[in-house]
Amino acid sequence: MKMLLTLRRRWLLGLLAAVVLLRALPGAGDMYSRHCYPFIANVLSGVSGCIPFSVSEVFYLSGILVLVFVPFYAHFRLSRSWKEVGVLELESVIWLYVWFYLAWGLNYSQSNFFQRTQTPVAQYDVKALKRFSNDYLAKLNASYCTIDTKDDSLVRAEVVACYRHISEKTGINAPFFLGPSVKTMLFSRFFSKVGVAGTMGPFFGESLVSNDLLPSGYAATWAHEYAHQLGIGNEGEANFYAYLACTSSRDSTIRFSGYFSILGYVLNTLYKEDPRLADDFVARLRPEVKQLYRVKVAHWRGLYSHTLGDIQNWIYERYLHSNNVEDGVKSYSQVVLLLISYQSKYGK
Fold first, then answer.
1. What is the pLDDT of residues 313-344, one digit of tens each?
2. Is 28 strand, coil or helix?
3. How many of the other CB atoms lie within 10 Å of CB of 293?
4. Which of 93, 108, 326, 332 could be stapled to 233 by a disulfide with Cβ–Cβ 3.0 to 4.6 Å?
5. What average pLDDT does the chain have?
């Protein structure tokens, strides 16, 4: 037993050293994302995809309960010393750390969009922003349509097909799953209270969306999480890829969901750079789109808890910074710069 314990710990230390080295080694993240991650993700998604509910959330809840209560059980009922309990607790945390990075987290170490695609960062000024916003406004208004239902099978088929179409020139892995699942969060209402409409479960390769999503946001949110599942770590890039995938769809409802998904980021950027330009943009928004946006904002504000949301933002901000996402939660808004740069290169 002692020999097995020693061997296990040697394996753990070896894997930990490998993760630390890969995170620090230039180019290792790109190699992992392109050549290793697709195989790992296929295995994990193949297992979790056979289970109809969110394996990730059950795993998170079980992990928290184990880490919190098992030490007391081991000490008081099994008569283990606190030192033994502490060592086992630390070992468990390191296993989770290693599993996270080998299963998905090393995607944070890959080159960013501009480096992967050799796309120059566009000149970002009010003039460029005005050109982009006018073009975007015309497409958003023209794409408007009513969306009354969340069609899982349609969204999955269309989004996967669109990612396969755009992958070659946009620096994202082509879909490598036989049939990615569309799962709803078990604890949707809790996640809504912290402002989370979707998430990607890195330990089991699952794309999860909230049951509280309005139909207009369903396709774009799933496309965002699927971008993460394909190996994208940066949140702004995930928004960017979701936009490209959805707006290239043959289905009108998915196209509108894509255009509508970045409206808040465009508005925030416009008001930050030039409030008069923002007011003009809002004045020219189609009335139906304005109303839908008001409904969306009111819907999520009604579900949001400022106390829980502030705690989640504080934790997530530090998590992103620890994984080389320098802008933290602000990286979500990077989608505007990415689109301006992309359109400057490709002219559309």
1. 666 667 666 666 555 444 446 899 999 999 88
2. helix
3. 17
4. 108
5. 89
* DSSP label at residue 330: G
- Please provide the DSSP assignment of 229-293 as one string: HTT---HHHHHHHHHHHHHT-SSHHHHHHHHHHTHHHHHHHHHHH-HHHHHHHHHTS-HHHHHHH
Nearest to 36 by CA among 95, 108, 96, 104: 104
Residue found under tokens 């702004």: 236
| Token couple for 180 | 């990615």
Query: With contact defined as beta carbons under 8 Å apart, do 174 and 164 qualify?
Result: yes
Name the band, by pLDDT with cuts 50, 70 and 90, for residue 74: confident
Could you tell me the two tokens for 347?
């002219």
On the CB side of 103, CA atoms within 13 Å amount to 17
Q: What is the pLDDT of residues 18-63, one digit of tens each?
A: 999 999 998 999 999 999 999 999 999 989 988 999 999 999 999 9
By three-state DSSP, how is residue 49 classified? coil
* β-bridge pairing 206-209 and 183-184: parallel
Instruction: Find, among 75, 67, 68, 73, the residue nearest to 91 by Cα.
Output: 67
CA separation for the pair 320, 316 (Å, rounded) = 6
The bridge status of strand 206-209 relative to strand 198-201 is antiparallel
C-alpha Rg value of the chain to the nearest Å: 22
φ, ψ for residue 240 (rounded to 5)? -60, -50
- For residue 122 the two structure tokens come to 């566009």
Residue 242 pLDDT > 80: yes
Look up residue 34 and give its DSSP letter: I
The pair of structure tokens assigned to 200 is 């990607």
Enclosing H/E stretch for 207 = strand 206-209
Q: Which DSSP string do the residues of 85-123 spell out, in sequence order?
A: HHHHHHHHHHHHHHHHHHHTGGGGGS--HHHHHTPPPPP
DSSP 175-242: P--SS---EE-TTHHHHHHTT-SEEEETTTTEEEE-TT--HHHHHHHHHHHHHHHTT---HHHHHHHH
Q: According to the model, what pLDDT value does residue 208 have?
A: 94
The residue with tokens 């990415």 is 338
pLDDT at residue 62, rounded to an integer: 93
**Cα(175)–Cα(61) distance, rounded to whole angstroms?**
29
